Amino acid sequence: xxxxxxxxxxxxxxxxxxxxxxxxxxxxxxxxxxxxxxxxxxxxxxxxxxxxxxxxxxxxxxxxxxxxxxxxxxxxxxxxxxxxxxxxxxxxxxxxxxxxxxxxxxxxxxxxxxxxxxxxxxxxxxxxxxxxxxxxxxxxxxxxxxxxxxxxxxxxxxxxxxxxxxxxxxxxxxxxxxxxxxxxxxxxxxxxxxxxxxxxxxxxxxxxxxxxxxxxxxxxxxxxxxxxxxxxxxxxxxxxxxxxxxxxxxxxxxxxxxxxxxxxxxxxxxxxxxxxxxxxxxxxxxxxxxxxxxxxxxxxxxxxxxxxxxxxxxxxxxxxxxxxxxxxxxxxxxxxxxxxxxxxxxxxxxxxxxxxxxxxxxxxxxxxxxxxxxx
Length: 375
Known about the structure:
CATH class of the largest domain: Alpha Beta
Largest sheet: 7 strands, mixed
Shape: globular
Number of domains: 3
Radius of gyration: 23 Å
CATH topology of the largest domain: Beta Polymerase, domain 2
Helix content: 40-55%
CATH superfamily of the largest domain: Beta Polymerase, domain 2
Distance between the termini: 26 Å
Structural class: alpha+beta
């Protein structure tokens, strides 16, 4: 059986931090010590906590909800603060770079109040163009004669020197192949700096719409590039989420919270499906996402059914690509194993909530969740 009281506690701590942390961040130390001993909780009450519903329903609705916009704003501001400082220093050292936000925070599908933020640091000139170019006349000769791979290597190396200097009290971890991680010190959030170059796809060369523009992330260990289309992913997920009244992102947050609340042995397997993969799975739910906001409990059953169909049929799984169409979602066996764990978890969640709502019925009836209104 699912212990929803424990899950609600974990959900609250993910979204707002621990009770103790919130107290020490809001009071001077002596008052904070006394408040902790008295059991005071300064964290604000959220909508899902005030529902006149069983605890399982509260958990499900809370797991779908976005974190406090003020917390998200802090994450974005910290990412911009670090990126702006780095860009200024890189410019002073002869590197022409700009910044872009990517990842879960950019899509508002993060589940932690103190969420990490991913900042791309992108070389402006020169760019990598897909050939045959749509129109060579749209480009001027590169002003930097170095090969692109050497330019981005230099940006990475300089960043590893600049960041500890600009943020001396911060822990700067340069061991990652794709990103430099900053945490602690003056930072209210962990920030990942990801050096990259522009990849102007043929589609972008025709549209000049940044959602069609690619990014090649620098892999330090391999001294090579990894091609991504993060802006296409963001736009397509945002567009489909808007078409279904925010329900796509509700499902993504639900899936991520379910993984976060799994015991470690299951979580290790389930995490083979990344946040990007989970967003892609939800993206392909189609009209199953068409539910009014007051009936979002039904999204649990719709998600359970979608996951079950994916698990049961390889041919069905193979139909689905990530939103930018760069690869299949299930491109290795580890992800299928993760899907099985996730499907079982979603099934257990649906059945546990059903049992709360209909304690005297023995057989699961999906219509109970689908037709349940939560105001």
